[in-house]
Amino acid sequence: MSVYTIEHEVAYYECDINQTMTFPAMIGTAIKASEEQSDQLGRGTDFVHQFGLTWVITNYLMKITRLPQVGEKISISTQAVAYNKYFCYRNFWFRDAKGNELLSVETVFVLMDMTNRKMSSVPEEIIAPYESEKIKQIKRYPKIDKVESGQHLQYRVRFYDIDSNQHVNNAMYFNWMIDVLGYDFLTDHVPETVNVRFDKEVEYGNMIESHYEIVEGEKGIESRHEIRMQDQTYCQAAITWRKK
Amino acid sequence: MSVYTIEHEVAYYECDINQTMTFPAMIGTAIKASEEQSDQLGRGTDFVHQFGLTWVITNYLMKITRLPQVGEKISISTQAVAYNKYFCYRNFWFRDAKGNELLSVETVFVLMDMTNRKMSSVPEEIIAPYESEKIKQIKRYPKIDKVESGQHLQYRVRFYDIDSNQHVNNAMYFNWMIDVLGYDFLTDHVPETVNVRFDKEVEYGNMIESHYEIVEGEKGIESRHEIRMQDQTYCQAAITWRKK
Description:
The first copy, chain A, has 5 helices and 12 strands. Chain A is α+β, with helices and mostly antiparallel strands.
């Protein structure tokens, strides 16, 4: 199976006040690695568009050992590990200069028909060069508990939230989910695991609500998140944290 | 005089729907080049902090021939060209792979006392290694016309707007100023010149107003911008545009 690796130096503008990489920056560089692999295999955006299809990410499952730090030289490896009729499973590993794992990300990609916006089965011509394993089963991810309390902030989807792929960059959902937690929480806690599911896409100009609650229970400190609009849920997440 | 150059490949997440680099991304990579030069000359953040000082940018003057495109390999060169008692003048040049100039940026840096937040004179120990010319005169930049009309949108300063330098990244002001222009204007027009002046710093949690108006006159199409809070102006800008 084909593993693709890029080198990356963590820039100051990719880091928050904790001197560590933000979620949008981590997601952005990870997706860049997978796009480069696709281009190298002749399966870039233009090739996929020939089928009237486009890639959409539906899940992220992150396990963080240590967040990349400002100025640090890291590598990001990615591998399309398996696929079934509808779902493609791609993993990412961030490593430090000595090869120690910083974090891993499991993702689920699906192909969407650009005309009717429905999920498409995965054509062999698109997936073959990645040499990923064809499987029958559908992977299940840990359940994301609902947000029960009523706290939320509103965010308008901005022009710069749409990236060159013509959609709201799904790294932006992290901006809305993280921001609500506030300065004190975010400078006192470090994320350990992240479980995100994307249900629907928000669009430019939408006014979204970022709902959240923080729960201390058997999983330790967990923040639960929902991006909602008019009572519909667009994205759900659970993040576990440890105190610094 | 010492010129420092970095190579950069324009990532998809650094570009907007026009497939060209956003202002925050251009400013971010430019400042990265200058920070790397400072580190290499032993005049990085820690050295400057020993004097109780920190760099603040007060002006940007950009001339854009062509915006960098997604996937393009570019170089960013920077040079500290001149300084007087209080002001340091640093220029940047973005070039394509063939060495053609894409854009130039003139900037003004000042040193601020971290305790009393006042401007400091420039110590020789800090500036000497850059080999920039010591001058007497203070450079004057084109006047930025005031926003006369009353249109504005509000933006809350978010956690991710503060970068690892512990301040609101001044690239973020561009996000607020550009966003108000709206999708139709921003996909129909290309920026040609940008003149920005920073007067005061906004802080985490502030609710700022991004005022603007679009004027068609002898300068062609010009958008005028003011970031305001409680009737105080924090940042002013004028951007000239041509129709696509």
